[in-house]
Amino acid sequence: MAGFRSLARQVRDPGCDLALRRYSLRKCLEKFAPYGHRATWDHLCSRAGFGPEDRSPDPARLVAALEELEEARDVWLAYETDFTERRRKEKHDGLRRPGSVDDWHRLTWGGFGVAWCDDPRVHPEAPLAEVLRRLIAALEREPGSSCPVCGGERLVWKYGLDHEPSSGPVCTDCGILVPRPVLSPRALEHARRGRLLMSA
C-alpha cells in the first residue's frame, strides 16, 4: 500500500491522469485526516475551491488542498515526536502511569480524528495546521471551559458518534469532538447536562 509521501507525489505529478491525482489525494486521507475522512475531504475541497464530487478539479486546486494537508501533517508529526520523547523521559524518571492526555492520544495516533467532526459538513473554517496548533496548545495547558479551536462555549454531549470515544462534548460552533483532557470537570459536567457554561 502506498504511503502518504508517494501518494502526495502522484497528486503533484502532471504526468498522471487527473482522476488518479484526485484519487491519490483522497487516499492521503486514509493516512492523515484530522476531522475524519469525510469531514477533512469536505474541508479541503471548500478551502481549495472545488466540489467534493468534482471528478475533474483544477490540478492547481488539488495541489493547494494537498499543501494544506501536508502542513497540518507536519504540525501533528512534530507533536507526536515531542509526545514520544516526553513519555520516554517520564518513564525514565519513574512515571509509568499515563495521564488523561496520554489516554486520548492513544486513540488519535497518526492524526486520524484528532479533531473529529461527526457531521462531515460542519468543521472549523481555519486552515488545518492552525486548528491543530490550537488543539496542541490546549493539550499543553490547564483544562478550560471552551472549545480550544474556535473558543466557543456551546458544548453539547453527543452519543452515538462514529468515532472512539463514541460520546463526548461536541462544539456546536465548529463541530469538533472536543478532547476531554482540554476541558475542566465543570465544563464536562455542563456539557453532559446540556447546559451552557457561563464564563465567570
List the helices and strands and how they pair.
Elements: H1 4-12, H2 18-28, H3 37-48, H4 59-92, H5 100-107, H6 128-139, E1 155-158, E2 168-171, H7 185-193
Antiparallel strand pairs: 1-2
Helix pairs in contact: 1-2, 2-4, 3-4, 4-6
> Distance N terminus to C terminus?
52 Å
* Residues in β-strands, percent: under 5%
Task: State the secondary-structure class.
Answer: mainly alpha
The strands making up the biggest β-sheet line up spatially as 1-2
Describe the protein's architecture and organization.
With 200 residues, the chain is mostly helical. It has helices at 4-12, 18-28, 37-48, 59-92, 100-107, 128-139, 185-193; strands at 155-158, 168-171. A two-stranded antiparallel sheet has the order 1-2.
What are the key terms here?
200 residues, two-stranded antiparallel sheet
Summarize the structure.
The chain has 200 residues and is mainly alpha-helical.
